[in-house]
Amino acid sequence: MSEKKFDIYFEFNYSKMNFAAFNKISDKLEHYKEQTYESYFDNYKEINFEKLEKLIEESIIKIEKSIGEFVRDIYLIIETPQSKSLQLSVTKNNEGNRVIKEDALYLVQDAKQQILKSNQDLGIVHIIVENYVLDNIQNKFLPLNQICNQFSIDVKFICFPKNLLKNFEKLFSKQQIIINQFICLDYVKTFDQIDRGQNICERGKSIVKGINKQEVVSIPKETKKNGFFEKLFHFFK
């Protein structure tokens, strides 16, 4: 199988379905297309996936002709009124020890499990650590090796309904395409300051690449030599 030349980003919003192809070597945008379509949102709440199926098939064919290779995986940016933002603070007794990476990981995992347990119908799309609190003193970034008695974090979770995520996965799987990552369009819009000349797909790519140093990233499916924690936090890279 030949090596992929492009990373593909899809954007679904209420009136358009846009795609962008980025050269994997140069990291530059080489193909971009905006496609207006009749809204497939029923009362702007539920997406009609049956209507979308043919449009997706036609769009994939056009993309593959444009880039000269088959599309097998994508990054999917979604606008939906069903997105939810949940916040949670979790605390650890640090007993006068220095703060280490493992402490942050423990609290993030604890917060994640609490959110999933209380919201079993939701899937987490983004995890953002908003504050690290050492003995009631807030820090935006992890103050490694500082001594404290109590260590806590304030975490924001951006979530989509699980059935929405599954329906999108099924929609693209019919074209033999997997979704590498779901991205919330409203979250992308909070980074308008990156470059006002950029389109949403370019901003979405910046988020995937780690523009927000407070966002926690998922562990890649493939095993790499770099350490476990370096895979979890953008700001440890």
Write up what this structure looks like.
This protein has 237 residues and is α+β, with helices and mostly antiparallel strands. It folds into two domains: 6-81 and 161-210, 2-Layer Sandwich (Nucleotidyltransferase, domain 5); 84-160, Dna Ligase, domain 1 (2-Layer Sandwich), CATH 3.30.1490.110. 27% of the residues lie in helices and 35% in strands. It is built from five helices and twelve strands. The protein has helices at 49-67, 101-118, 162-173, 185-189, 200-208, and strands spanning 6-12, 17-23, 29-33, 41-42, 46-47, 73-78, 84-98, 122-134, 137-139, 147-161, 178-184, 215-216. The strands form three sheets. It has a five-stranded mixed β-sheet, sandwiched between helices. Strands 7, 8, 9, 10 and 12 form a five-stranded antiparallel β-sheet that branches. Strands 4-5 form a two-stranded antiparallel ribbon. β8 and β9 (137-139) form a beta hairpin. α1 (49-67) packs across α3 (162-173). It is elongated and about 60 Å long. 21% of the residues are buried. Residues 219-231 have low confidence and may be disordered.
Could you say what the CATH architecture of the largest domain is?
Answer: 2-Layer Sandwich
Structural class: alpha+beta
Beta percentage is: 35-45%
Unreliable runs, pLDDT <50, ≥5 residues?
219-231
SS element count, helices: 5
Q: CATH first level of the largest domain: which class?
A: Alpha Beta
